[in-house]
Amino acid sequence: MTRACERLVIDPRLRRRAILSAIRAARVRLTLSIFRCDDAVVLQALAAAADRGVHVRVLMTARARAAGKNLDALHARLAGHGIDVRRFAGGMKYHAKYLVADGRLALVTTANLTARCFDRTCDFSLVTRDPAVVSGLNELFDADWAGRAVKFSDAQRERLIVGPDQEPRERFATLVREARQRIRIVDAKLTDPRIVELLDERHRAGIAVERARRRQLRPIRRHGKLLIIDGGAAVLGSLALSARALDSRRELAVVVRDPRLLAGLDAFWRTHVAPRPSGAGARLVAPPMEMVP
Description:
The chain is an alpha/beta fold. Helices cover 37% and strands 24% of the residues.
């Protein structure tokens, strides 16, 4: 995999653009996992893809807190445009957030496809052409669409963490144990007792454990989940470090080890999370991280 095949999107102003670019890139097939979606522009882009002959498949959660009517309306709207829509039947909340265009381009995100997440939240997206990620997401989607078990290759498993049946807690614990200097976390729902205990152990061993607090990101709201281990690895996705997310929801996270992307995440942290002088602004504008030609 070359470094040029992946990029990060952090700036809220670029979030919708990245989603739309991926949707518009599809020529034959487009698959999406959706938890929440109320953005008119994204919905129009999906309808336009179906109109130009793209086979669009959408896998939706069967339930979301206080959103039953919204989910029903979204399902009907998508189906009305000829989009193949299915509600996840795996008996759990379907919280994974990703899309794949033509089996060549994928986007894994922490953000919902909502106006709020395109404007007022701290979220992270990875745009990638890495065959391991793209094929792994295809396998995940096809398995969940058909209601069968997910079967990952070693390369797919190296990049993707899927809960609850792919041992997400142990995967995160293994990464935390890799730390030699610093662990950084953006996760408003970090409550899992075993992960909290492990982080405390690492802190007592002399590892700096830094967690983004709500006040550090204001007025942007914490939403995305991000774990950074030294300068060697990062994990982003829908998967919160809570017992409920780790044990009883379909969740997805992607592992990043590209030094260029890790440097971008370090710049984000130093600019927007690290302590700043009193009164410093908190507007979230990430350093440029465009696709390298």
